[in-house]
Amino acid sequence: MALIRDHLLHSSIWNIVWMACLVGLLHAGPVHALPPDLDLNASITTSTSYWNSYTEGGASARISDTDTVITDPDSTSMQAASIQITNAVSGDRLDFTIPFGSGISEDTFSRSTHRIFSGRSSIANYQTLIESVRFSNTGDNPGSSNRTIEVIVSDYPTSTPSNTAVATIQVIPVDDPPNLDLSAGAAGNNYTTTYTEQGTAVPITDGASITDPDTTNVSNAIIYFSAAVPSDGDRLSINGTLPAGITAPVQTDSQIELYGPASASAFETVLQQIEFSSGND
User: Which pTM value belongs to this model?
Assistant: First the structure.
């Protein structure tokens, strides 16, 4: 009887072990828990980041090198990517080209400063997508702060995110010229008026307006006759007191020079004070 009990006990133990193995096989599957690794510039072995520069009004700038590399120890496919300017200013944007037939699409939550992509596709296609991304600014005053762009990819099928690879774009602003309008509110920037001989002096502007995308201040202005030699008796003059911060060290009949720096509105005031007259018969 003891032998029979031992045999039954031994058989029960093996049945338990067999069932445990069977359950393990049924639930076991490919494990994709290791994160992918993203490198925006594989030729630099000490970092996964990338540096570039963008000049205002110039060509858009790459956010990665031509040797962008994604590696994943347990997956050959990616299924999402996020590319975001973390300190964007007005006018910043990221443009891209999705590889044809890749199955990648732009997400509905994507925007010009944060591009989001999804769709299972090969690592090569996601590398090509990232390499196509360009930074630019559509405005006239992008500032001079470096832009930080963070790039992340996620693998298939577990959506395990990669490291955050960072692109730094140095923004080089360009000094845009101010725009002077002598007839604010009317078409064009020029002003035409009529002076009657021996009559009252007439203003040379009709509501001057100065705009500059880079600054609200003006350093200087020069007003002079365009003719090489004005007619005898022709005269430019300032009717009134100069606003604070503006001087006029040069005041001749044919030329007035104004110096600041002062606000654009202060220079507008002076321009509206300048008059033309002539003592010529």
Answer: 0.75
